[in-house]
């Protein structure tokens, strides 16, 4: 059955995608502008990428951002997965409503409120602000996104696989690492990538919780944009877009291959059962 798009639907999709991606495309194009004035085209050049690689302040901010994102995404993935397991597997227990509310609260909490509350907490604890305070803050607000992604996968998980493994003498911890975790691994990886991306993009919470020597790349870009947009900002933004795009493509390919391998294993198992029958 041929389902072609109507002219209205095609026009709406075109305008929607243009609204979303045309500014990004213009940013990428003007990152190769020879002129220092971003509104005046002076020809193609890669000079601003060289300028970025020689800008030590931007390089330091980028390194801090990557370290914070990697550390916070890893811890948030572990905690978010454990929270999802509790919400799906633990059933009804005293304090479940409070626990689920605390897990999901950062989803609806304004970032300004989250950043301010964390700032007051660190000040009350006399905790010197810097790399670790930013990392803890990013763990706090990104863990809930991981929990939502992993929980959606656990809801449709076939518990009979775990039961069969334990009936054969596999202990619970080994069942989790050899049966449960491989099945939910695409959701766990997706949660990690989401937490990593949210940390890379965060400006508000990091502004409240940062300290000396812990300036992130979004904060550095924002401070420079306030003085005017320069081609260097376009160049570093293009590099970030390229890195995120490569990460999304790699994750998509990995997930697709895992699904194909799982389908192949299921077909092989069905074929073996049919042959034995």
UniProtKB/TrEMBL annotation:
Pfam family, one: BPD_transp_1
Transmembrane segments: 12-32, 68-90, 102-125, 131-155, 176-198, 233-253
InterPro entries listed in its UniProt record: Bact_Polyamine_Transport, MetI-like, MetI-like_sf
Domain ABC transmembrane type-1: start-end pairs: 62-254
Membrane topology: Multi-pass membrane protein
Cellular component annotations (GO), alphabetically ordered: plasma membrane
Annotated localization: Cell membrane
Cross-referenced PROSITE patterns: ABC_TM1
Top-level taxon: Bacteria
Keywords noted in UniProt: Cell membrane, Membrane, Transmembrane, Transmembrane helix, Transport
Principal localisation: membrane
Family annotation (Gene3D superfamilies): MetI-like
Family: Belongs to the binding-protein-dependent transport system permease family. CysTW subfamily.
Protein name: ABC transporter permease subunit
Organism: Futiania mangrovi
């Amino acid at each position: 059955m041929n389902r072609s798009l109507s002219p209205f639907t095609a026009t709406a999709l075109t305008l929607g995608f243009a609204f979303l991606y045309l500014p990004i495309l213009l940013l990428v194009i003007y990152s190769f502008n020879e002129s220092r004035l971003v509104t005046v085209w002076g020809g193609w050049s890669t000079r601003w990428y060289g300028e970025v690689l020689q800008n030590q302040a931007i390089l330091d901010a980028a390194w801090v951002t990557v370290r914070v994102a990697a550390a916070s995404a890893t811890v948030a993935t572990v905690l978010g997965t454990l929270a999802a397991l509790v919400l799906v597997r633990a059933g009804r227990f005293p304090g479940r409503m409070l626990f689920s509310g605390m897990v999901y609260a950062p989803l609806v909490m304004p970032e300004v409120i989250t950043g301010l509350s964390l700032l007051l907490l660190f000040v009350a604890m006399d905790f010197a602000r810097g790399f670790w305070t930013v990392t803890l803050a990013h763990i706090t607000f990104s863990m809930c996104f991981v929990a939502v992604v992993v929980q959606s996968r656990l809801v449709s998980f076939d518990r009979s696989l775990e039961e069969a493994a334990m009936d054969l003498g596999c202990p619970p911890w080994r069942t989790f690492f050899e049966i449960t975790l491989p099945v939910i691994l695409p959701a766990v990886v997706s949660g990690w990538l989401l937490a990593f991306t949210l940390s890379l993009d965060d400006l508000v919470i990091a502004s409240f919780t940062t300290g000396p020597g812990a300036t992130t790349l979004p904060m550095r870009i924002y401070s420079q944009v306030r003085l005017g947009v320069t081609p260097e900002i376009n160049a570093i933004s293009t590099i970030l877009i390229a890195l995120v795009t490569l990460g999304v493509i790699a994750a998509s390919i990995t997930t697709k291959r895992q699904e194909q391998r799982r389908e192949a294993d299921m077909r092989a198992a069905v074929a073996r059962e049919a042959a034995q029958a």
